[in-house]
Design a protein that fits this description.
Blueprint (H helix, E strand, L loop, with lengths): L10 H29 L3 H25 L6 H29 L3 H30 L9 E5 L5 E4 L16 E3 L5
Antiparallel strand pairs: 1-2, 1-3
Helix pairs in contact: 1-2, 3-4
Length: 182
């Protein structure tokens, strides 16, 4: 019988977490740098920053999958995401705002408070989406709605979109309820 190593609590787990965090931060930083390089008139440099940012994303995904024994299911991801947003909304940003205000950084405190409200919206969105997944209502509504194919733009009226887009043949997963809030 082969003994399987346990990652939880190991130095390797800590290293994977640090690698994931580092690659994730580098990706964002390089995305910002790429946009700035392009704004400064350096298209090639901007593109190379963006290419590297995509490489860093791939590295982060490798470490993430090792930490989670693969990629968790969408329902789990929605629940975890809602929990993270809840923490940011209820604990992290209020604490940061309080500390910034105590140190005299009132504008930064106000920004922390405004972002906390956005995190609440994110939390509520993920919770609603999780309920839709659990209830089987992502692609099945109680009344007729307008659906749009995210690939080709085909519009369809009904309680649920077609199984396959009749125009581009993308599966039902490419449809969403059409937003007309503009």
């Amino acid at each position: 019988m082969v003994m399987q190593k346990i990652l939880k609590g190991s130095k390797t787990e800590a290293n994977l977490m640090a690698a994931f965090a580092g690659e994730s931060q580098a990706r964002n930083k390089y995305t910002f740098y790429g946009a700035k390089a392009k704004a400064d008139g350096f298209e090639q440099i901007g593109n190379l920053f963006l290419e590297t940012a995509n490489n860093e994303k791939e590295h982060a995904e490798i470490w993430f999958k090792l930490l989670h024994n693969g990629m968790p299911a969408t329902g789990e991801n929605l629940m975890e995401a809602a929990g993270g947003e809840r923490y940011e909304y209820e604990t992290m940003y209020p604490t940061f705002a309080k500390e910034a205000r105590e140190e005299g950084f009132t504008k930064i405190a106000a920004l922390f408070e405004l972002v906390a409200k956005i995190e609440k919206e994110h939390m509520e969105r993920y919770e609603t989406l999780k309920a839709n997944v659990d209830n089987g209502t992502v692609f099945k509504k109680q009344e007729s709605v307008t659906w749009i194919c995210l690939n080709c733009g085909h519009v369809y009226e009904g309680a649920q979109p077609p199984q396959v887009c009749p125009v581009c043949e993308k599966p039902q997963s490419w449809f969403q309820v059409k937003a007309e809030n503009y």
